[in-house]
């Protein structure tokens, strides 16, 4: 058995990603290797953050107790959690659970994607406004599959030029879902729509973080 440091576990709707609007069980693991300028879960990023210690069996039992079969593993950076492969293997052995893992684009996903019945990946690409773009592992783009998503969180409309360059260079829209999302409060989503219209980018989908509109943007556990 392995032990995981869970800073939050709750049921809510997926606020973003391919399954936005669907109920999911959220498991948030502590600790992150990046420090994005706009991070909205900074409190969870410390490897010292107060957390409940749970084994993979306890996590799966909790998930099953909710009666919800969709799971979002998030952080922090969940792929940096010690023994995370054990948790992914445990979930992979539960065919009724549909698991998605949110990762920050800096961690090589190949060893995790190779696990039979691996979760779907939602890979955030950190653009320049995050201050973390130099940490991105571009080799990940080659391993994305239709169940996966690449999400570009934009803090300035000018970053959309870089998004289009990456989507075209790596053929991302042919491999997986491509989403763009505004940093909440930093950029007007209407400007992003206008960009998509102007550049005729039908292959890129705008998404707003639903939970920030439904609840207080700083509210935890939703
Ligand atoms: S990768 Fe995510 S959790 Fe980590 S600092 Fe950036 S926004 Fe926060």
List keywords for this structure.
222 residues, alpha/beta, TIM Barrel, 9-stranded mixed sheet, 7 helices, binds iron/sulfur cluster
Indicate the topology:
Elements: E1 3-13, E2 23-29, E3 52-55, H1 56-66, E4 70-74, H2 84-92, E5 98-103, H3 110-113, E6 120-126, E7 149-154, H4 159-169, H5 172-175, E8 177-182, H6 189-198, E9 205-206, H7 210-214
Parallel strand pairs: 2-4, 4-5, 5-6, 6-7, 7-8, 8-9
Antiparallel strand pairs: 1-2, 1-3
Bound molecules: iron/sulfur cluster.
Poorly predicted ranges: none
Q: Average pLDDT across residues?
A: 95
Q: Domain count, please report it.
A: 1
Please give the CATH class. Answer: Alpha Beta
Strand order of the largest sheet: 3-1-2-4-5-6-7-8-9
Bound molecules: iron/sulfur cluster
N-to-C SSE string, H for helix and E for strand: EEEHEHEHEEHHEHEH
Q: What's the shape?
A: globular
In CATH terms, the superfamily is Aldolase class I
CATH-scheme architecture: Alpha-Beta Barrel
Helix content: 10-25%
Stated plainly, the CATH topology is called TIM Barrel
Measure the end-to-end span: 29 Å
Rg, Å, rounded: 17 Å
Largest sheet: 9 strands, mixed
Q: Number of helix segments? A: 7
Question: Which strand-content bin applies to the residues?
Answer: 15-25%
User: Which structural class best describes the helix and strand composition?
Assistant: alpha/beta
Annotation, overall tally of beta strands = 9
